[in-house]
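To assess whether the prediction recovers the assembly geometry, we first specified each molecular entity separately, as shown.
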Amino acid sequence: MKTLKEKILNNGESINGGLLKVDNFLNHQIDASLMMEIAKEFVRRYSGKQIDKIITVEASGIAPATMVGYLLDLPVLFAKKSKPGTMGSNMLTAEVFSFTKNSSYTMYINGSYLNSGEKYLFIDDFLANGKAAEGILGLVTQAGAEIVGMGFIIEKGFQNGGKELRDKGIHVESLAIIESLDNGKIVFRE
Amino acid sequence: MKTLKEKILNNGESINGGLLKVDNFLNHQIDASLMMEIAKEFVRRYSGKQIDKIITVEASGIAPATMVGYLLDLPVLFAKKSKPGTMGSNMLTAEVFSFTKNSSYTMYINGSYLNSGEKYLFIDDFLANGKAAEGILGLVTQAGAEIVGMGFIIEKGFQNGGKELRDKGIHVESLAIIESLDNGKIVFRE
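The predicted structure of the complete assembly is given in tokenized form:
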């Protein structure tokens, strides 16, 4: 996706340890018009699929997922990263290790929003080691529902999450795949 | 806002201690089409105001704020509730006490996204005691910028945040004001 790649090149910052900082338009400040363009592209790539609900993880997944939900007129469910006071007894959890933060967190979803037999499209900002995606896959499967696709704005192609998800037969779509961040230079996969 | 009030009556749950649970369309599962309607109403209520940027707090503020940013073609900045690994040295913080969770959290904003002289519209899901709003007001003011309005989807009229913000001369707009949640019954202010 050309607009996105240009935005990453112009505003992204490759910092040491294989991190890509895109706080300027995605992870802290959001370019809402770009989110709509991104959502349109996801809708195009998953056209023809039956989708019942969009699922994401707070916080950076919410903006693109909400735009996809708006375009498809579908509800958007976001997993929480801190224990909600009011979720009640039907709470599903998954432990997720974040390489970026070098620590684990728990993901919480109210099981009553995951319906057996329904088809879910997962939308998130980044795919790196795929741990958040695996957590979501586990929760959705546990509820007897199905993941019909996983769409990411940016995939770090030099990490193994994308390969692992695709090897499981999941329809993964990443709008920009980073081949390398070596020496502070952002190189896309062609 | 009629659609919103109906949604609250049909899907909201008044639970003990003055809490209103709207996980079905706002705080866990998001009704994206409703978020767009809400954003249009905010845009209408603040029409004629000069606004340079939308500001909100993760996570539930992100969906409505992004829709407002989309409609006005403005960037959306969201304050974080956990310390970001990659924010750098220019980090502004505010301590916020949450009555809902009965604990404090720290709000983080990268100061380089708050520009002196700029005008900010704050959008959030709930106004109760107004502590998050005060935190944002402090950070924006500290950066030499200005809050031109604060728009909330739901205001708990029986708590004091709304009065305190309006007494400071802030243009507060709440799309649904709850008069009372006594005995599990949701009563709106007319």
